[in-house]
Design goal:
With 403 residues, this protein is an alpha/beta fold. Helix content is 40%, strand content 20%. Helix 10 packs across helix 11 and helix 12 crosses helix 13. The longest helix has 25 residues. The relative contact order is 0.12.
Length: 403
């Protein structure tokens, strides 16, 4: 960090204020003298700004004003107030939606989970607004202390105009989500694709903390990819970056006329996504008799994985093929992006410890360079944490990167 030497007195004060706050957040507890020394800012300037930050409740003093063993007063320590403000994070999934209240450090203070499809047709944002205000009331948090609300959406999203271009699981096309949300919520609204949001969360607090080149691959109903390149979220020229569900990972299967194509879903989605796995199993079971999976009223990808882990031959064959598709896709991503790490998210990632050795084998054989593959650090909560991170990155507030 360094002092800003140019600009008007007002801009210098604001920039120094941000530097001091960021310093306290990163390294607290600190004394006023330690802050001045770290930032090379005069002690009177630090003291003046610290007093202002104390009044605004961004920081707190800790330690008693008592004399030390050698005489004299111990310097008062300053620490960041993680609950000076709060953020609402929302992860809208095709099946379930999770809403949460977070402090400025990503501590989730309350969460509410509800079924998406029951609400999406009659106004899912009204449901979010209701549960968010309920959680705030239960936590005794003033709505004015909310910095904003971040929303992750399962589809291509035009962040600039706030439009969900295509979200097949919600049946949204060119849906003006941000405009709709701003009429409902009393806070600033930030929206993005759910996988983009998830990779922000992993870089902020998770498996990619502190990294600048990160890829998160979410394997759920469909398959998507979020990318942080040189520290910045990469969305593409038309907001379609990361749609690896359209990767073709087997040219012979792709050319087969009986390989069904569904609107909004690509080749990899159909062959390695959750819905595709369940469909493959259903087709295979039609040729069998007296198989336990045939008793399932609704067959899921989890069911198939569970039976594959038990060495069921039908399930094992399906899952081995799925892992091959995913492995080839990851090898391609590594060869194009050259990330520091690949993170696996989404429902199917819960079985990652079981199939990771096979993925690593494919990557070592086909990728340009060896790259570590990790499972998401947060599981189902990564979406809301990423949505919180989205607000903190996009809004002019205490956690925005300072340069």
């Amino acid at each position: 960090m360094s002092v800003f030497e140019k600009g008007t007195p007002f801009t210098m004060k604001e920039k120094n204020k941000r530097l001091i706050l960021q310093c306290i957040q990163d390294d607290s507890p600190l004394s006023r003298s330690e802050i001045a020394e770290k930032l090379k800012i005069s002690k009177p300037t630090v003291s003046s700004i610290v007093e202002e930050l104390l009044q605004e409740e961004w920081i707190k003093e800790i330690g008693a004003r008592t004399a030390g063993a050698q005489g004299g007063r111990r310097p008062i320590q300053i620490t960041f107030n993680h609950q000076a403000r709060f953020v609402i994070g929302v992860d809208i999934g095709g099946t379930k939606t999770l809403a949460a209240i977070s402090d400025l450090s990503g501590n989730l203070l309350a969460t509410t989970l509800f079924h998406t499809q029951e609400e999406v047709q009659c106004g899912i944002l009204h449901k979010v607004n209701m549960v968010a205000k309920q959680m705030l009331a239960e936590l005794n948090i003033d709505e004015k202390k909310v910095l904003g609300i971040g929303i992750g959406v399962p589809g291509m999203t035009n962040v600039k105009d706030g439009i969900v271009i295509d979200a097949p699981s919600l049946r949204w096309k060119m849906h003006p989500l941000k405009h709709e949300a701003e009429k409902i919520f009393p806070w600033p609204v930030f929206i993005d694709n759910d996988v983009n949001v998830a990779v922000l969360g992993e870089q902020w607090l998770g498996a990619a903390k502190g990294m600048s080149n990160v890829v998160l691959i979410s394997i759920g109903t469909g398959i998507g990819c979020g990318m942080i390149l040189e520290g910045n979220l990469y969305r593409g020229s038309s907001w379609a970056a990361g749609e690896i569900g359209y990767f073709v990972t087997d040219i012979h299967q792709a050319k087969q006329k009986d390989d069904p194509i569904y609107s909004g879903y690509g080749f990899l989605d159909r062959h390695a996504g959750g819905a595709g796995i369940a469909n493959k199993a259903s087709q295979a079971l039609k040729k069998q008799s007296n198989h336990p999976l045939q008793e399932k009223a609704v067959l899921t990808a989890k069911d198939v994985f569970d039976y594959a882990k038990s060495d069921d031959p039908i399930a094992l064959k399906i899952i081995e093929e799925v892992i091959d598709h995913i492995g080839f896709a990851i090898a391609n991503v590594i060869s194009i992006i050259n990330p520091e790490v690949i993170i696996l998210g989404g429902g199917i990632s819960k079985s990652a410890d079981w199939y990771l050795p096979r993925l690593e084998e494919i990557i070592s054989q086909f990728a340009s360079v060896p790259t570590e593959v990790k499972r998401s650090a947060f599981g189902s909560e990564i979406g809301v944490l990423g949505a919180v991170s989205l607000v903190l990155r996009e809004r002019e507030c205490v956690l925005k990167t300072l340069s």
